[in-house]
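tl;dr need the bound structure. longer version: we got a ligand (adenosine-5'-diphosphate) that a collaborator sent over and nobodys looked at where it sits. i said id run it. heres the input, straight from their email, havent touched it
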Amino acid sequence: MSNDRPRRGVMFVISSPSGAGKTTLCRRLITEVPGVELSISATTRAKRPNEVDGVDYHFRTVAQFKDMIDKNAFIEWAKVFEHYYGTPVSEVEQRLQAGIDVVFDVDWQGARALKTIRAGDVVSAFILPPSIAKLKERLEGRPGATAKGVAGRLAGAGQDILRWGEYDYAIVNDNLDSAFSELRAILLAERTRRQRASLGNMVDQLLKDSGLGD
Ligand code: ADP
Ligand code: 5GP
């Protein structure tokens, strides 16, 4: 017997200091795990050479972003490294209702807001770099990296790491494959959390067939 309705999707919220690898991990989750989609944020920061508008972010001017704020088009938004970032409402509700899991690559402010607004839907994971030296190497190796950008992100890393205790799970991204396996395992386990499973009718039927139900 099939479920009476699809389970509600998980809001899988992932944060890390910039450069620790969350974008890489989130993209891999979307590619390798069926039924998962990425919430594409809007931002006012400049596009990096390898990024595509509408795929990595919805790139917007400050005026366009502020207009979206005025129209309540964001579930949450925050200023990070002098730029605006926000989660559009349109990225979320329909997918959750259709049983699709949505991954959010947001900073600690975004994670806090999403947990407050949608406590029952959110599962959160914090990605830690193995060391600050490796974090620096990764920031420097990223396409479009500038000395100023790297220095700013490194200076802000501590402020992000300080918040790791607010998350449900913590993953050290040293070996990419291991970190990815852990992230995938968390999502697969959370999908079967009893409260999310929508199995009421099926279990009623099982009880009935076993002679216990009415
Ligand atoms: P974030 O989204 O957290 O800012 P990215 O996913 O953009 O970080 O990763 C920063 C850089 O580090 C990228 O060039 C990426 O390819 C690289 N990277 C990510 N994870 C690892 C890893 N486990 N080992 C080595 N390099 C990595
Ligand atoms: P980057 O410019 O490196 O892509 O992202 C910078 C920071 O902004 C990261 O910590 C990223 O998680 C965060 N970020 C991206 N999109 C959003 C969003 O929609 N909301 C919030 N609060 N943070 C975001």
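gonna send this back to them w/ a short note. Residues 176-191 form the longest helix (16 residues).
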